[in-house]
Design goal:
Blueprint: H1 3-17, E1 26-27, H2 28-50, H3 55-77, E2 86-87, H4 89-100, H5 105-112, H6 119-149, H7 165-181, H8 184-209, H9 215-220
Antiparallel strand pairs: 1-2
Amino acid sequence: MHPLLVQWLRFRDHLSTDFLGGPKVLKFAWVINLQKGGTLPFVLLLMAATGNWSATAWTYAALHGSYGLCWLLKDRVFPDPGWEQNITFASALNAWLLVLGLYWIAPVIVVVGHVEATPALLAVATLVYVLGVVIMMGSDAQKFFVLKVRRGLITDGFFARVRHPNYLGEMMLYGSFALLAQHWAPWLVLAWVWSGLFLPNILRKEASMARYPEWAAYKARSGLLLPRLFVPAEPVTG
């Protein structure tokens, strides 16, 4: 990996787990689950406080709220080992201030701002959201249960044509929330998360997967985030 990427990952990991030192009594998963599971009550409270019971507000509550419930279900059935590490209180606060809390900007804009979406936009956002949730949940489940049986590259199923379908799915579903907000601020948040968190994670994973002998062939027939529809023909030998 590029030295700048390595330095960024070290700095980010320090902010996420060891910031300011002290006892590590909180699991990262608890911090994330609090925000994910709290999204539906948060949006409903916003709706009650503002008297906004519009179709757009209800749709947003259903989409973002159900994602939080899906996340809790995922954490219960096939948790991500990466979120099981213990972190300091300051790192937990960082997670909220720098990422998790920012995800609630979109519902504040939608509900407090009484944003109205056309039926077509509601349909598009719902379509993108559902596909994103299925891709994210399905690929995370496949990875979890396959790696329980064997280690190594996963090159079939959700991973057959896309090397990081879980990130693709999460980008799609959060993109649907930003679509409903019809404002630049949620997109700015996503630009920060995708470039500062997702992309470095993906590049680190790519470097890790490159140690497997079948990596070159797998990379040639798959896309980083978007599926590779046309696979290069293998050269004929002999």
